Amino acid sequence: MRRSAFCLVVLCLLGVSARGDQVTLKNGDRITGTILKVDAKPDDKTKTVLLIKTEFAGDVMVQWDAVTSIVAPEPLHLMLKDGQTVVGPVTTVDGKFEVTTATTGEVAAPKNAVVSVRNDAEQKAHDEEAERLRNPHLLDLWSGLLDTGLSLTRGNSSTLSYTLAAKAVRETPRDKISVYTRAVYATDDTTPPNRTTAHAIQGGIRADLNLSERMFVFAFTDFEYDQFQHLDLRNVLGGGPGYHMRKTANTTLDLFGGADYEQEYFSPNPPLVLTSTTRKTAEIVVGEEFDAKVNGRTSFSEKFSFFPNVSNTGEYRFQLDASAATKLKTWLSWQVTYSERYISNPLMGLKGNDQLLSTGLRVNFGKAKL
């Protein structure tokens, strides 16, 4: 009799274990499987979802707002808003999650106090990623994009124009490195001879170092070539302090200012300018950089920099870059880009501003930081 009772208890326990974790939704539906984690949705950080691995449907993602109850016989790691992490089996009683911890016994937490939930495997992966962020190698954590734009005509007209832009970013909680470049090229051979109608290349490197949660310092060097400004090379080297005005998962706004040293080398522009021109000046730099995820598919970025000339007061230049991109796939987007460069003192006979509007495909790699 005792053996039969013991077997019955064992079978009941095995039955509970076999059922695994259970998630109950607002509409009364129940999902059984293994809870992996509760975290921000990968393609839309504004939404929080629960990921549960089921036997027949695979990984199922449900809105966290739709979850009313969790029963998990195996330990889960719950991070709370106050920074506390509690670990243990979870049940739901009167709308609160009750965690049976090994050290402090029962801990109850309302659902709105829970920031994230992870099982042992997901928590281990999260801790390893956090450690990698604290001590990354130089080649780790890079993400980036490649923008392309192409226009081609044949027949009564024969033209070719393309734009190519690339940016790579390596960001950690402590610092950020950005490498960027853009090229524009266009030709027209409708009537001989073949003519180049646009040819410009820009690029640079910038490094940011966080001094605190809000304050940072930056250093940069930029390079620029523009055939139709007769600009053989513009090299700018500078830096200064900055301030994270807003920094969330979906929106960042940085303000920055400082000083730089600019070198410009111009080729002759006959018949108005017959000799090469070299300028070396000191400048102030002030600007802002804004990035936002409008929704799960669309993002917008913009950067404006203003350079008043200190060596020759009254002269200045500015740079504006803005782009919007809509995801077609995780790694592929359609982008629209606007760019403008202006100098108040171009060579005689030339215009001071150059504008670019292009659209085309964007290829992304790494974790989206852009």
Structural summary, described in words:
- The protein has helices spanning 2-19, 120-134; strands at residues 21-25, 30-41, 44-54, 58-63, 67-80, 85-93, 96-101, 105-110, 114-118, 142-153, 159-171, 175-188, 195-210, 215-226, 231-247, 251-266, 277-293, 298-308, 316-327, 332-343, 353-365.
- It is mostly beta strands and 370 residues long.
- A hairpin with a 3-residue loop joins strand 7 and strand 8.
- Residues 4-18 have low confidence and may be disordered.
Present the secondary structure layout.
Elements (H helix, E strand, L loop, with lengths): L1 H18 L1 E5 L4 E12 L2 E11 L3 E6 L3 E14 L4 E9 L2 E6 L3 E6 L3 E5 L1 H15 L7 E12 L5 E13 L3 E14 L6 E16 L4 E12 L4 E17 L3 E16 L10 E17 L4 E11 L7 E12 L4 E12 L9 E13 L5
Antiparallel strand pairs: 1-2, 1-5, 2-3, 2-9, 3-4, 5-6, 5-9, 6-7, 7-8, 10-11, 10-21, 11-12, 12-13, 13-14, 14-15, 15-16, 16-17, 17-18, 18-19, 19-20, 20-21
Number of helices: 2
Identify low-pLDDT runs.
Answer: 4-18
How many strands appear in the DSSP assignment? 21
Strand adjacency order, main sheet = 10-11-12-13-14-15-16-17-18-19-20-21
Order of helices and strands: HEEEEEEEEEHEEEEEEEEEEEE
In the CATH hierarchy, the third-tier topology of the largest domain is known as: Lipocalin
Instruction: Write down the Rg.
Output: 29 Å
Structural class: mainly beta
- Give the count of structural domains: 2
Strand content: over 45%
Shape: elongated
Name of the CATH homologous superfamily of the largest domain? Autotransporter beta-domain
CATH architecture of the largest domain: Beta Barrel
State the major sheet. Answer: 12 strands, antiparallel, barrel
Oligomer class: single chain
Mean pLDDT: 89
CATH class of the largest domain: Mainly Beta
